[in-house]
Write a structure and sequence with these properties.
Blueprint: H1 2-18, H2 34-42, E1 47-53, H3 62-76, E2 81-86, H4 97-103, E3 108-111, H5 135-144, H6 147-155, E4 160-167, E5 174-176, E6 190-192, H7 195-203, E7 207-209, H8 213-221, E8 227-228, H9 233-239, E9 247-250, E10 259-265, H10 266-271, H11 274-307, E11 313-316, H12 319-339, H13 341-363, H14 365-372
Parallel strand pairs: 1-2, 1-3, 6-7, 6-8, 9-11
Antiparallel strand pairs: 3-10, 4-10, 5-8, 5-9
Helix pairs in contact: 3-11, 5-6, 7-12, 9-11, 12-13, 13-14
Length: 374
């Protein structure tokens, strides 16, 4: 009912505005004159916050979305809540965002939960799980299936309040300097791939390597790595990966619907009046949808450009490879759950919702796409 409550709140605001008293000067219930209204507004508390992100300056969609979020809140709150956005390294390094917001040094942060897997392994379910749900399914789980409540439960000890605030959609499988025809081709493969996807690759005999985005191009060009995943066609093409790798594989089994997060220091959040809290909440939901649709449009347009590049081949992973990676994913998740009770609790909740979602999807979206192909 989370989304429904937000929609009802928005409808009530519109209804109240439509039913407000007439501005007729003879009406005893008419609004205050402009000067008095401005005076009343100026007496309300104002807040100047900082937001730090894990994204480079001017990074399309990601940093762009964080900036848009701040601008929307300033507009809707009439500058009662003004947020200054700082990109990676403009105030602090990217991987210090969680700690800075947790400590209250900064009020807000924007990134993705799998960056904090070392602190909270279960946080990866709130970001990207190999062979997990797509954006449609994960949004349903977070907003209406209890996922957001679990997210807030695991962040509560860190004095943080999280919100979904973006989704990349299904990512690509990555760029490779050699063909992947069998599972054996993963043996010894040096690939830039983070999180649970990296653990699965290691089980398959590969060598996952963690690299910052700015290092990926040169590492692949110099042969330090044999392959890399990044995001999708739009960001991959901007990074120039099509210039140094021949084979572009799909689908992104490791990140089928990567959630981006807004984190707010709990004490700062509780200091906001209820109306500003609601503005932040709805703005985060709007950002979640805006980012997803931007990715969909930019990726489909860029993919058409990449298809015209004669030096690259866009290929599906062989069924045999995907089946083995799926098996190893289940093995990895089960092993981690056996060692971590919190991970186990969220894994079981995630898996149960995914099974229900898949059952519905089979006779909804999947059946529809099959009908189109007849």
């Amino acid at each position: 009912m989370y989304v429904m409550r937000l929609l009802i709140a928005g409808s009530l605001i519109t209804l109240l505005a439509a039913c407000s008293p007439s501005s007729d000067s003879n009406n005893s219930n008419s609004p205050l004159p402009p000067a008095e209204s401005n005076s009343a507004h100026s007496s309300l508390p104002k807040f100047a916050w900082k937001m730090v992100t894990t994204w480079p300056p001017n990074f399309p969609i990601f940093q762009e979305g964080a900036q848009l979020f701040a601008e929307n809140i300033a507009l809707m709150s009439q500058d009662r809540l003004k947020i200054t956005v700082f990109a990676e390294k403009e105030l602090i390094p990217a991987l210090q965002v969680f700690d800075a917001v947790s400590a209250g040094t900064i009020q807000m942060g924007h990134g993705s939960a799998y960056y904090w897997a070392g602190k909270i392994p279960a946080a990866q379910f709130m970001s990207a799980v190999p062979f997990g749900m797509t954006a449609k399914g994960v949004n349903a789980w977070l907003y209406e299936g209890g996922g957001l409540e679990l997210w807030r439960k695991i962040y509560q000890p860190f004095n943080l309040v999280p919100f979904p605030a973006g989704n990349s959609g299904v990512q690509m499988g990555g760029w490779f300097n050699k063909r992947i025809n069998t599972v054996q081709d993963l043996q010894g493969l040096k690939m830039r791939i983070p999180g649970l996807g990296g653990k699965v690759l290691a089980k398959a005999g590969g060598s996952p390597i963690l690299l910052a985005g700015g290092e990926v191009y040169s590492a692949l060009e110099r042969g330090v790595i044999d392959a890399t995943e990044w995001v999708g066609p739009f960001h991959d093409e901007r990074l120039g990966l099509h210039q140094i790798a021949r084979y572009y594989y799909y689908p992104g089994w490791h990140e089928p619907g990567t959630v981006l997060e807004l984190i707010i220091n709990k004490s700062a959040w509780e200091s906001l009046p209820k109306d500003l809290q609601r503005i932040v909440e709805i703005s985060a939901q709007a950002l979640n949808q805006w980012m997803y649709t931007k990715f969909e449009v930019q990726n489909m347009q860029t993919l058409q450009k990449l298809k015209q590049q004669s030096q690259i081949e866009i290929l599906p992973f062989p069924d045999e490879v995907l089946q083995e990676l799926h098996r190893l994913t289940q093995e990895t998740l089960a092993e981690t759950a056996a060692q971590d009770p919190i991970f186990k609790e969220i894994y079981e909740a995630f898996r149960a919702f995914q099974a229900q979602n898949a059952s519905w999807d089979a006779i909804a979206d999947e059946a529809y796409h099959q009908a189109l192909s007849q």
